[in-house]
Structures are given as structure tokens and as C-alpha cells.
Amino acid sequence: MKILPTKDAVKKFLLSLPNSQTTVGLVPTMGALHEGHLDLVRKAKENSDIVIVSIFVNPTQFNNPDDFAKYPKTLDKDLDLLKNIGVDAVFVPDNQEVYPESPLIKIDFGDLERVLEGSFRPGHFNGVGIVVSKLLNIVKPHKAYFGQKDLQQVAVIKRLVKDLSFDVEIIVVPTVREASGLALSSRNLRLSPVQRENALVLYKSLSFAKTELLKGESWFTIKSEVENQFQQTPEVELEYFELVDSDKMTVLESLQEGISLSICTAAYVGDVRLIDNISVNH
Ligand code: PAF
Hints:
The chain is built from eleven helices and ten strands. The chain is an alpha/beta fold. The chain has a six-stranded parallel beta sheet, with helices on both faces.
């Protein structure tokens, strides 16, 4: 497994590939890898000749400096996991390599980012849009892999690719959960055992809401029951719990036929912010 610390090293690695037919899959990450990331890598290995993983904790997508400072960093362990699973190369740039200068451009994703994560984390998707553009330009992958847990990020990146004509296919991989239902997240490393228990309210309330919605219960009633469940869970503070059109991210108040629907939530468990979502259609 090659370790590529610079854009030049990536360029040389790409030039060393056998021929122009070789397909490259990119798995962009911020490290602190877990089974969810490894699933992205497995998918990438299934349908690309060469798999490159990037590890870069991108400062421009953190609206909260404390969250950035506390973001788990486990580089040695990450590299071991990637080596064992058979990744071809890992791009591990430092901040200077990615941001020789602070970007002047700003990306505004319009209505796609006025809700959910975008409204609670101002500037977050600007940072995601800029760093993903840079990674796509540096690695020039044929396919890039993202987890469904970050549903709004997926919508934003698909739109980025369309609007800027990036020649890449975006592949979305389902969320990996613990047996308890807790969605895997690098931030889970910061939860105490009790907080891990309390964090189960996210998935339980998503599953409850989906079942009730499909039974015909009104979204208004479901939402107030869910808000109650969150209030009764110690150390947990709900930020949002919304029914959305999974592609346009429009917030809805009832079931709609013929479109892909998801329920999305974000909550603090102690000082750790977690997100999760569930598809209503399957
Ligand atoms: O999903 C993530 O880990 C990050 O948002 C990404 C896509 C690697 C960009 O920094």
C-alpha cells in the first residue's frame, strides 16, 4: 500500500498505473475509520481496479472549532486497517497541501442546504463542496464512494458533480449499524458507555417514526411523540427530526407518493453531535 502525502505523489502514482483503462475508485474520509468506511472500501474494490482512500480532517467543514479539535485521530490504526483490506494507496495530505491559501470561492448549494445540517452548521457544505472538489481534481477517480448516513452530503455532492461537470460516478453505500441499531460514526469514539446507550434513541425514534408513518399516523403526532422520547433520554438534546424528499432535501409534513422519502435526525449526546436517517420507502 502506497502512502501519498502530496498531490505530486498522487500524480506519480496515477501515471504509474498499467494503462488508461485502469479504473480508479476514491473513498474520501476524515480518518478514525470504522466498519462503515471499510464497507465503502469493499464496495470500491468490487468495482474499481485501483482503490485510493483519502484521509484528511477538513477544517473548512467544521463550523465548531471545538468539534474540529476533538475529532478523533487514529492514523496508525487507520493505515493498518486499510493495508489489511487491500487498499492500493492512501492520500494523507497535510493542511498546507490541501489549502496552500484559504479559498476565496464560496459554494452555496441553495435550497439543498437551507435545511437540516446546512441550517444547523452554517458553512459546513461550503467546506465539504470545496474539499470534495479538490479531492476529485487531485485523484481524478472514475467512481467515488460516500455513506448514506450523510444523506444531505450525498445530495450536495451529487449536485456539485452535476453543476461542475466532474467526470465521476457517485456511489452511495448503505449505513452500517451496530447490532443495537446505533449508526457507526467516527464520533462514537467520544461517547461514554452510558452515552452510547442513550444515543440509541436516534435509531429507535427513526424506526418508530417510519412504522407509524407507514401505518397512517400523522407526521405531526409522530414528531411530538418523538420529541417526548428525546426529552426523556438523559444527556440527549434533539436538534431536528424531519421527513424529507431524499433527493431535493425538501422538508415534508406527510407521506408523498412517487418520491424517495427519508427521515433525518441530529442530536447532541453530551457534547457529541450525531446524525442518522432512515429510508421510508424500503
Ligand atoms: O464524510 C466525510 O467524512 C467528509 O465529509 C468528507 C466527504 C471526507 C469530506 O471531508
